[in-house]
Design a protein that fits this description.
Length: 349
C-alpha cells in the first residue's frame, strides 16, 4: 500500500532541509508517494493566504505531513491572520494535532557544540511532550485601551480538564516506553490554569502507578535544564512553556539544527517538523543543518507509518555521520546541507 506524504516546505531554509529529508526517505526504498503544496509566506505570495484551502486539503488527505518551516520578516507587517506562522498554528488546530513530541539527546561528538560543560551535556536524553492546540496560543486575543487611555493587549490562557488529561496520558505513555519518569511542568504557584493542570495530572497519575511523577515550576525547570538536564526523562507541559523549554533543550543538546518533532492527534496522522524556524539569515545558501528535518522524517516513519526499523536506520545513520565528524556551520563545521545529507545517506547504504 502506497503512503501519501504531504510535503509542506514553507519559507527560508524550510525547502532546503525538507528536500534533504525527502531525499533520505526516498533512499529507503519504501512505498511512499510525495505531494508538495505551498505554506507560510510562500503560500501568501503565491495564493494570498499562508494556509490555502488546497494545502489544508492535501494535509487532510495525506497519511503524514513533512513540514519545513514558516516565517518571513517581509510578512511581519501583515495582519496576524495572514502571517506565515498562522499556517502551522492552523494546521495544528485543524488537524487536532494536540500532542507534540520533542526528543532531545546529545549525539556523541557534539559535546563541544553544546552550550553546557561536556559532562553535563552528555547526560541529555529527554522528551518534551508539549500540548499543542490550547493554552495562551489559542485563547481569546484582543487589543483595547485602559481607563487611562493606554493601549492594552490581551491573550487568554486557558485549558479545560479534558485537554489536560489527554496530553497527560501521552506524557505517561511516553514515560512508560522510556525511563518511567514523568516531570509535569507548570506555574501552579501563580496561574489558575496551571493549578487545574496540576490537579488533573495528579488524577490521571492514578492510572499509571508504575510511573514516577514529579512536578516542577517552569522557572525552576528552565534552571534545571541547564544545571542538570540529565535528570529529565519525559517532561509534559503546556503549549507556551513547551515552546520555550524545547528551544532551551536544543542548545543544551548542541544545536537547534538537531532537534526533530512530531505533532500527533491520536489517529496515526502526524505532522513532522524540525523545531527550528525558517532562519532567513542563511536561507538559500545551502548551509542549513538538515539533521533535524531528517530526524523528523524518521519520526514520521515510526509514528505515522509504523515503520520502526527504517526509522532506527535513519537515526543511526545521523548518529554515525555526526560521530564521524560531519558538521554543518551551526555545529562548528563547514559542510553544506547537501554534503551533510550525503554523509547521512552514505551510512544508510
Ligand atoms: C515552534 C515554533 C512555533 C510555535 C511558531 C513558528 C508559531 O516556535 O514550533 O516551536 O511557537 O509553536
Ligand atoms: Mg518554538
Amino acid at each position: 500500500m502506497t503512503h501519501l506524504i504531504a510535503v509542506l516546505a514553507g519559507d527560508g531554509i524550510g525547502p532546503e532541509v525538507t528536500a534533504a529529508a525527502q531525499q533520505v526517505l526516498e533512499a529507503m526504498n519504501l512505498d511512499l508517494r510525495f505531494e508538495d503544496a505551498p505554506v507560510g509566506g510562500a503560500a501568501y505570495d503565491a495564493a494570498g493566504h499562508p494556509l490555502p484551502p488546497a494545502t489544508l486539503a492535501l494535509a487532510r488527505k495525506a497519511d503524514a505531513i513533512l513540514f519545513g518551516a514558516v516565517g518571513d520578516p517581509r510578512h511581519d507587517m501583515l495582519m496576524r491572520e495572514l502571517r506565515p506562522e498562522q499556517a502551522i498554528l492552523g494546521l495544528r488546530k485543524e488537524l487536532g494535532l494536540f500532542a507534540n513530541l520533542r526528543p532531545a539527546r546529545l549525539f556523541e561528538g557534539l559535546e563541544d557544540a553544546s552550550a553546557l560543560k561536556p559532562d553535563i551535556a552528555r547526560a541529555i536524553d529527554l522528551v518534551i511532550v508539549r500540548e499543542l492546540t490550547g493554552d495562551v496560543y489559542f485563547g481569546l486575543k484582543s487589543r483595547g485601551t485602559t481607563a487611562e487611555g493606554l493601549r492594552e493587549g490581551r491573550d487568554l490562557m486557558r485549558y479545560d480538564e479534558a485537554e489536560v488529561a489527554r496530553i497527560a496520558r501521552v506524557g505517561f505513555e511516553t514515560a512508560r516506553r522510556r525511563g518511567g519518569r514523568l516531570c509535569s511542568v507548570d506555574k501552579a504557584n501563580v496561574l489558575e490554569t496551571s493549578q487545574l493542570w496540576r490537579d488533573v495530572v495528579i488524577e490521571v497519575a492514578a492510572d499509571y502507578p508504575d510511573i514516577a511523577l514529579t512536578h516542577m515550576y517552569v522557572d525552576n525547570a528552565s534552571m534545571q535544564m541547564v544545571r542538570d538536564p540529565g535528570q529529565f526523562d519525559v517532561i509534559v507541559t503546556g503549549n507556551l512553556f513547551g515552546d520555550i523549554l524545547s528551544d532551551q533543550a536544543s542548545m543544551c543538546a548542541g544545536s537547534i539544527g538537531m532537534l526533530p518533532s512530531a505533532a500527533l492527534n491520536g489517529t496515526g496522522k502526524g505532522l513532522y517538523e524540525p523545531i527550528h524556524g525558517s532562519a532567513p539569515d542563511i536561507a538559500g545558501q545551502g548551509r542549513a543543518n538538515p539533521c533535524a528535518a531528517i530526524l523528523s522524517a524518521a519520526m514520521l516513519l515510526r509514528h505515522s507509518l509504523g515503520m520502526a526499523e527504517p526509522a532506527d536506520r535513519i537515526e543511526r545513520a545521523v548518529a554515525q555521520a555526526i560521530a564521524g565528524g560531519a558538521r554543518t556551520g551551526d555545529l562548528g563545521g563547514a559542510l553544506s546541507t547537501q554534503a551533510m545529507t550525503h554523509s547521512v545517506l552514505a551510512r544508510i547504504g
